[in-house]
Specification:
Order of helices and strands of chain B: HHHHHHHHHHHHHHHHHEHHHHHHE
Largest interface: A-B, 34 and 62 residues
Number of strands of chain A: 0
Number of strands of chain B: 2
Number of helices of chain A: 1
Strand order of the largest sheet of chain B: 1-2
Strand content of chain A: under 5%
Helix content of chain A: 55-70%
Oligomer: heterodimer
Strand content of chain B: under 5%
Order of helices and strands of chain A: H
Radius of gyration of chain B: 22 Å
Shape of chain A: elongated
Structural class of chain A: mainly alpha
Radius of gyration of chain A: 20 Å
Shape of chain B: globular
Distance between the termini of chain A: 63 Å
Chain lengths: 47, 528
């Protein structure tokens, strides 16, 4: 019974972590400001 | 979830902005940018293909980790792969080019590390295409054998494998529009087949389902190894399934609004695959009534389904699964060829000009597509010959191909994640460089956990019985090192060379392709 409980807890944890990451990223997509963004072409690649 | 800035712009405005973004890196918009968010998600979801990885290695996972592998192994791997995918999604949003892992590494540290990343990625891609299409052959050959009355052997499997690769080459050559439509269809198809499988097993299993405890039963292995070690080896089943989601980044130059859609494609493909894959594996495992018979059969998944659903119905389900694998292989060649195209336009490979050519008629990297097909066949063919010479090899071909792809791909995933952390700590990569899809303060801990998992899993994937995959990868590394010091160290300029391209040259290249759209479609090829 313990194995089932731990297994289900692990599934719930994975779903919660995935959802939290998705929500965080979505929040950042919505609040993104193009004016404050700078395209990164690389430190050693800049001419 | 993808609503933000994109809904405010027309598709044309967005595509113009996307083209300008790409031009900043010195690249012309050569590939046809026509993929939407769902298509971008669909290509990764199709390559992850829960109906390929989890199914073709089902017997492997069951043999090493017992039924608990499906309950615990799948979930543990999915948890960490979600973190890896989030880390890569962030980079795709920041540097949206088809070279992806290779370009990110080159930008974050330098061209030589970028060159190594590209080759390691290519090695993994060869393994994944070969592994997927070999899985198609492993399932299709016995089914065809039943229809045409022949016995499935290593030789017949190799022939079917070659035919499948050939079909995938032709479809990819003919055009991104067809492949994109098939990818979209494939995503729905995967979900539908999982639903059919689950409903069939839930209601029509001959002997009823096992209690839920069975799915989480740990401690049972069908090998002579200690359980903890056997469980780790069995993780290959889930870990191989969760590969190839970088495809959303490799097709980024074909995606409209790529800085948002490609990262969602990477992340969501892993998240949805976890959920659908878990449901499928749970029902398949709960329908097992003779686990010992399953692991000792030629194909455990076919055995379980046939036992549970009977001959004819079982065969129909197996054909549905085989077609899902076929779609998976189709998408994987798309991804592989785009990566090769991107690397070749920076002259990173022998005969680069050839592989960087875009077919004028179809606007696909036709030669790169056929090279992907040939390299994948060669990898499986070498393994076939090795087994003919020494039939006592104890590993299975599918385990060899999949272990090569897991290590190759995950090392290639890990390098840019590590380099991003390094560039941040040195102050090169700053918050203003993040794209719209970012993790903010969560980025660093998620990156660190991703790296720890990658190191751990790469070691686990090459311990016996998969040591051959380790030897193959070491051999390829030695070859890469020789190529690097002998030639590329001095001649490879990487994405830096593209930055030197003039605006006029970029416009000239784009002008040539715009000309094709407006009528002229002779089958001449272009290269940068």
């Amino acid at each position: 019974m313990m194995e089932v409980f731990v297994g289900i807890a692990l599934i719930i944890l994975t779903i919660l972590v995935g959802t939290a990451i998705g929500l965080k990223a979505n929040k950042n997509v919505r609040s993104f400001k193009e004016a404050e963004h700078e395209i990164y072409v690389g430190q050693k690649m800049k001419k | 979830m993808e609503i933000g800035v994109d809904i405010l712009k027309s598709k044309e405005q967005q595509m113009l902005e996307d083209k300008k973004q790409l031009n900043h890196y010195g690249y012309a918009q050569e590939l046809l940018r026509d993929m939407g968010g769902f298509s971008n998600f669909a290509i990764s979801f199709s390559i992850i293909s829960i109906l390929t990885g989890a199914v073709s290695l089902y017997g492997y996972g069951l043999m090493y980790g017992g039924p608990g592998m499906m309950g615990y192994g799948w979930t543990i791997v999915a948890f960490f792969v979600l973190l890896v995918s989030a880390s890569l999604a962030e980079l795709a949003s920041a540097i949206p080019t088809a070279g992806a892992l290779y370009h990110w590494s080159a930008a974050l540290m330098g061209t030589r590390i970028g060159w190594y990343t590209a080759w390691i990625n290519l090695i993994g891609q060869i393994g994944i295409v070969a592994g997927i299409d070999y899985s198609v052959a492993l399932f299709a050959d016995p089914l065809l054998g039943g229809i045409f009355n022949y016995s499935s052997t290593d030789t017949t499997i190799l022939i079917v494998f070659g035919v499948v690769l050939l079909l995938h080459g032709i479809l990819n050559h003919v055009g991104i529009k067809i492949v994109a439509k098939l990818n979209d269809f494939s995503a729905w198809y995967h979900m539908a087949v999982v639903a059919i499988l689950v409903v069939s097993l839930a209601f029509f299993t001959k002997h009823g389902l096992q209690p839920i405890d069975y799915l989480f039963h740990i401690g049972k292995t069908f090998t002579d190894k200690p359980y903890a070690l056997a469980f780790l080896i069995g993780l290959l089943q889930a870990q191989w399934t969760f590969t190839g989601f970088d495809a959303s980044a490799h097709t980024i130059e074909e995606t409209v609004h790529p800085r948002v859609r490609a990262p969602w494609g990477i992340f969501n493909s892993v998240a949805f695959s976890f959920v659908f894959g878990f449901i499928m594996l749970a029902f398949v495992t709960l329908s097992i009534h003779n686990a010992n018979g399953a692991v000792h059969s030629d194909n455990a998944f076919i055995y379980v389904i046939s036992q549970a659903l009977g001959g004819t119905f079982g065969n129909i389900v197996l054909w549905l699964v085989t077609f899902a694998m076929f779609f998976c292989g189709l998408s994987s060649i798309t991804s592989f060829s785009r990566m090769m195209y991107a690397f070749s336009r920076d002259n990173g490979m022998p005969f680069s000009k050839q592989w960087a050519e875009i077919s004028r008629k179809y606007r696909t990297p036709a030669k790169a597509i056929w090279l992907s097909v040939i390299l994948s066949f060669v990898l499986a063919f070498i393994d076939y010959v090795a087994k003919k010479i020494n039939p006592n090899f104890s590993y299975s071909t599918i385990a060899f191909l999949t272990a090569v792809s897991v290590v190759g791909l995950y090392v290639a995933y890990g390098i840019p994640i590590f380099l991003k952390l390094r560039a941040e700590s040195k102050g090169y990569f700053k918050p203003k460089h993040y794209g719209p899809w970012s993790l903010g303060k969560w980025s660093r801990p998620i990156n660190v956990l991703s790296l720890l998992w990658i190191v751990f899993i790469c070691v686990v994937m090459v311990i016996p019985p998969n040591q051959m995959a380790g030897y193959a990868i070491v051999g390829m590394f030695i070859l890469l090192f020789i190529m690097d010091v002998a030639h590329y160290k001095y001649h490879f300029k990487g994405p830096q060379a593209a930055l030197e391209k003039s605006v006029e040259e970029i416009k000239r290249l784009e002008g040539e392709f715009e000309h094709i759209i407006h009528g002229n479609d002779s089958d001449q090829n272009f290269s940068q």
